[in-house]
Amino acid sequence: MDLQTVWFAAVAVLWIGFLLLEGFDFGVAALLPVLGRRPADRHLMLRSIGPLWDGNEVWLITAAGAVFAAFPGWYASWLPALYLPFVLVLFGLIIRAVAFEWRHSHHTAQWDATWTHVITAGSLIAALGIGAALGATTLGLPIDGDGNRVGGAFSGLGWPALLGAVAVLAFSMVHGALFLALKVDGDVRLRARAFALRWAPAAALPLLAWAAIVHLRYGTAITAALWVLAAVAVVGAWTRMKLDREGAAFTAWALFLVAAAATIFGAAYPVVVPSTVDAAFDLTIADASVSDYTLTVMTWAAGVGLPVVLGYQAWTYWVFRKRLTAEPVHEEAAEVATA
Amino acid sequence: MDVLDIARWQFGITTVYHFLMVPLTIGLGVLVAVMHTMWVRTDNPEWLRMTRFWGRIYLINFVLGVATGLVQEFQFGLAWSEYSRFVGDVFGSLLALEALLAFFLESTFLGLWIFGWGRIPKKVHLAALWAAVIGSIVSAYFIIAANSWMQHPVGVVTDDATGRPLQVDFFAVLSNNTALAAFSHAIVAALMVAGALLVGIGLWHLRKRKLEERSTEEPDQGVWRRSVRLGGWVSLAAFVLVALTGDWQGKLMYEQQPLKMSSAEALCETEAPASFSVFAWGKLGSNECDEVHSITIPYILSYLAHGDFSTAVPGVNELQEEYAAVYGETYPDDPSFGNKAGEPIDYTPVLSVTYWSFRLMIGMGAVSAGVAAYALWATRRGRVPTSRVGVYGSLLAVAAPFVANSTGWIFTEMGRQPFVVYPNPDVPVEDQVYFFTAQAVSPGVTAAEVWTSLIALTLVYGALAVVELWLIGRFVRAGVTTGDGHPTPGFTPEPPDDADDAGAPRRDRDDDVLQFAY
């Protein structure tokens, strides 16, 4: 395998890792108004992702950084073509990050509720926007022969972007529910299980459809097998949910994402931005890539660095592995103390 | 304004804003890690309280730095896609390595530190903080290496097919002397920011306690006193290092970007020996160098530039002609230069910006060092200053090193215009890699789009600044507090070392200001 292919695979792995990890914290945040009926429930849900969301978000930065580093042509065509959607994603991520920190920096019910809503809103915007961007880059953007967008500010936002947006959000919400079922105890755990069981089949459809379209356009026998694996994983996840096997259900749902995303990236290879203007303008890894020297340097750095990162990130998940229960929040604690 | 100007304003606003958080994150991170280390070593509750108070400010600031840093990574692609294409072989890999080798370390271990109180053994918990702080410093190195490559491109040749730089020596890029000088200068400047914060806030609390006639036996007295002493000494030591590294960097810049340095002095005509300008007036803003007058000190500039009192320093007028002769009188008449195609090139940066930002940087650094010296003197042998001017002046002077850091970077970046990648003078002209800012902007993006993001980002950043300052102000006034916002004088928590205890109710909850109250 040549280095460009290796790095295409590496970029795919980073995006999949991002969706797998940040997917559940997007999902938990999006589910706050759905599953978090009492303030204590919402605190519990936020505590489940508190130590993890920032580390998860670095996967996005690394994935985008790897696109720039290995395929600057891809980065330079993809981002400006979806200028406003990407700016919106940045807003979502900014307000979400500060809300996580600021929420607990001042103790009134109103303040708390406001920033909790901001976390949900920011996560929804970010999940939809990133989904739209991934949908567009695998299904087509209106770019010319130089890789520049034609047709104005909104020309990149067609059905592919919409499909990607819905697919990523739907996946994330069920993913978040399964994470909660695994991670917390009490009412929220039960409600999360019920939510996942009810919505998993519908939530799987947009991602399966997206993968099917990319496969039908460019796919091979391997991507066909991957798509079938994704579909089987959905069925497996759902049956495990029915049996209340939370760990197995979470694993199977994660496998669904990995297989579906692998179908998409595998089928799209070697094209990184298909042009909706003319297939001759399709941007491929060869057009977009840096030199072999730079790829070699990065291969060494990633080969040493990535296993270390995976090691210590896994370790923090292990440290925070304990199932959480709703503790009295500060106001409640104060009431207990005065009673 | 055309897309180029709007995109430049956007880059300037978002970067200067982001860089308000960065030096505080780096500098305060180091100091909080030192405090935490002292607590682990001595078991003195004052160090624990310091760790928690300053640690909380560190975190409030850190998160805004992370949030605004995201914009930085994306806007190279969004607004500067031609730049991204041109420098892709070098620049992107430095950003990716920063994410892989530094951001993961920073965010993962910071999460572990915040949530790890009482859950993991004390020393492992301390190591987590150090890992995060080292992550911040490594991250600064990669970013400065990327920036320094734009200032002084090394380790590349020109690709004949595309005209773009091809990386041939990654270690040359990493060991760029421009990067080593700028990194060391930026890190010690970051320590000055943290030192000034400790001094300003610490003095204010000490004075307040004295006026309220609070007991000097309470641990909080020690918290503020130690903060002032630590901050003062760090500021002073850092100032000495800032001067030394700045001198090194300045001498390099006289070799690598002489026009930037002569613009810093508004030195129009070549002088031998050259004098240092103290105050300039005239038409700095219109870049008419001959209309600029200044009060000068003879010989000093020759010394700053070359280490002796006689060597000539070239003037702006002469350099402008030299650059025009080599890189062209006008921009090529090519659509990739947008509105600038065929226009004359001004190789001189905006003199009013370079001249005054350079002086503000030095002046504010000196103010900061003066305040640190005052604070150390005023708190000698247990004294507490009650002078309104001294204490409130020190509080106000917390802003000084922030201004110095910002203006330093504004000088560095504005001083390299009209190039975004500056030609390296060590390389023969025909092999040089360079790129004009006018070529760098995204061709497909419309002015309306960039206006939208510029206005929206500026508004959101402004709103965030208001909330951030309000929160920090409230938190600082409250002093060392518990998680509930109530002070607990004399209470010393001892987080359990036993990790298995994590789920049990926490004895130390009342003083738990770092545990996020999720």
UniProtKB/TrEMBL annotation, chain A:
Name of this chain's protein? Cytochrome d ubiquinol oxidase subunit II
Q: Which gene encodes it?
A: cydB
Q: Which PANTHER family match?
A: CYTOCHROME BD-I UBIQUINOL OXIDASE SUBUNIT 2, CYTOCHROME BD2 SUBUNIT II
Which GO terms fall under biological process for this protein? aerobic electron transport chain
Q: Does the keyword DNA-binding apply?
A: no
Bilayer-spanning residue ranges: 6-36, 82-102, 114-137, 157-182, 194-213, 219-238, 250-273, 293-315
Q: What species was this sequence derived from?
A: Blastococcus saxobsidens
Membrane topology per the entry is:
Multi-pass membrane protein
The main location is membrane
- UniProt keyword Nucleus, yes or no: no
UniProtKB/TrEMBL annotation, chain B:
- Give the start-end ranges of region Disordered: 484-511
Q: How does it sit in the membrane?
A: Multi-pass membrane protein
Q: Which GO terms describe its molecular function?
A: electron transfer activity; heme binding; metal ion binding; oxidoreductase activity, acting on diphenols and related substances as donors, oxygen as acceptor
Chain ranges passing through the membrane: 20-41, 53-71, 91-115, 127-150, 182-206, 227-246, 356-377, 389-411, 450-472
Among its keywords, does the record have Iron? yes
Q: Mention one GO biological process in which this protein takes part, according to its record.
A: aerobic electron transport chain
> What keywords does the record list, in alphabetical order?
Cell membrane, Electron transport, Heme, Iron, Membrane, Metal-binding, Transmembrane, Transmembrane helix, Transport
Q: Does the keyword Membrane apply?
A: yes
Tell me where in or outside the cell this protein is found. Cell membrane
Q: Which InterPro entries match?
A: Cyt-d_ubiquinol_oxidase_su_1 (IPR002585)
Pfam families from the entry? Cyt_bd_oxida_I
Q: What are the annotated GO cellular component locations?
A: cytochrome complex; plasma membrane
Which family, according to UniProt? Belongs to the cytochrome ubiquinol oxidase subunit 1 family.
Q: What is this protein called?
A: Cytochrome ubiquinol oxidase subunit I
Which source organism does the UniProt entry give?
Blastococcus saxobsidens
